[in-house]
Design a protein that fits this description.
Length: 389
């Protein structure tokens, strides 16, 4: 599967300072665990991206650079046109060192201490840390509960909705209707929307016809920003670099001023620009192949969980390479499960409490099939050992 690309052969990442393998003890207390954790993949990026990076490296000069140029702008416009059928206004483009740094600046621009910031739960831990770390109040609403969403948006001190589209960790892809209703609610209550679309390129083609709808398509008169990066789908987050779109010209000017002053951003990461341009111009075939390979991994997880624990009724996520698994029907306590996973099975799998959802696990299967199989086998054995129902 995946031809002409080889996703089956493992690349040894150990000793590359990577968080996934080398940093496993920081979260799990011991080294040497087989990791299924932070959201990056074990695959090398697209060959087209590698070739562009090599050519740029060969140039040898890495002086201050600019993202405000047509190669970057037109590559992004091409990507949105060809992948999302969306004509974007490149005049709305902004840049930031990472999606989370953009989020942080926007939260500082649009909220004050103690203001409410609404998110869907379970919530990506990066959002939680950014919101609470800035002294803003995190207000969670369960994914899919539109009544709760309206209730929270209606509170007078609710200032921003941070939307994760598609949603991490559940992998939910929001429909155009859901997004339009969300946009209307946010506008009615004067709440700004920050739509984080870093997982957009990984919507699975499972026959249901789901498509990612960029926020630019539903945004109304209210304040909004779309923040994203090619780094997730093409697996180059350590190059650093992200971009976004900001609807309002005044907000855009203020955002860029803050990037320059508060963040001291003098130059984008030029290798990230190179990688984005190559990915968006030439990387579509690789992305389709890696996504379908990962869908195979997720299909395997579904098959294995279905055989071992049919009562879970687990189905693969609509987007992404993270298997979000609700183990509550089996009466699984997270500390007991983690003990067996770490001490007996020697695997690192994220516990749901990281995302405010104890009783769940998040298994990253952005990896060769053989490793994914080992992960799910370890999980099945560990759950079998600690289940109480
Ligand atoms: C929803 C979401 N946003 C942002 C990030 C991080 O992006 P960056 O490294 O560009 O801050 C992640 C990484 O897992 C993510 O899942």
């Amino acid at each position: 599967m995946g031809a002409p690309y080889d996703f089956d052969t493992a690349v040894d990442r150990r000793g590359t300072w990577c968080v996934q393998w080398d940093g496993v003890a920081d979260r799990f207390g011991v080294d040497g665990l087989l990791p299924f954790t932070i959201s990056d993949m074990d695959f090398a990026t697209a060959p087209e991206v590698l070739a562009a990076l090599r050519a740029r490296l060969d140039h040898g000069v890495f002086g201050y650079s600019t993202w405000q140029q047509d190669d970057f702008r037109s590559a992004i416009a091409h990507w949105y046109a060809t992948r999302y059928g969306t004509e974007i206004d490149t005049g709305q483009l902004v840049y930031g060192p990472s999606v989370l740094s953009q989020l942080s600046q926007l939260l500082q621009m649009w909220t004050g201490e103690g203001d409410g910031v609404v998110v869907h739960t379970p919530v990506y831990d990066g959002f939680r840390k950014a919101i609470t770390g800035l002294g803003r109040e995190l207000r969670g609403v369960p994914v899919g509960d539109e009544e709760a969403l309206e209730r929270e948006l209606a509170r007078p001190d609710a200032k921003v909705l941070v939307l994760c589209s598609p949603h991490n960790p559940t992998g939910r892809v929001w429909t155009a209707d859901e997004l339009a209703r969300t946009a209307a609610l946010a506008e009615r209550y004067g709440v700004a929307v920050i739509s984080d679309e870093i997982h957009a390129d990984f919507v699975h083609d499972d026959g249901a016809g789901r498509v990612h709808v960029p926020w630019t398509r539903v945004a109304g008169e209210g304040r909004w920003a779309l923040v994203t990066s090619g780094s997730k789908a093409f697996n180059f987050p350590a190059l650093t670099g992200s971009y976004g779109f900001l609807g309002d010209p005044g907000d855009r000017a203020e955002f860029l001023r803050r990037m320059e002053t508060a963040e001291g951003l003098a130059s984008p990461a030029v290798l990230s620009l190179t990688a984005h341009i190559a990915a968006y111009r030439e990387g579509a075939a690789w992305l389709d192949a890696v996504r379908s390979y990962v869908a195979g991994n997720l299909g395997h997880v579904a098959e294995r969980l279905g055989a071992a624990f049919p009562e879970l009724g687990w189905v693969p996520p609509q987007a992404g390479y993270l298997a979000w698994i609700d183990l509550r029907p089996l009466g699984v306590e997270e500390p007991a499960l983690q003990r067996v996973l770490v001490e007996r099975e020697k695997v690192a799998i994220m516990g749901g409490s990281v995302y405010g959802a104890p009783g769940f696990v998040r298994l990253n299967v952005g990896c060769p099939r053989e490793k994914a199989v080992r992960g799910v086998e370890a999980l099945v054995r560990a759950v079998g050992a600690v289940r109480t129902v």
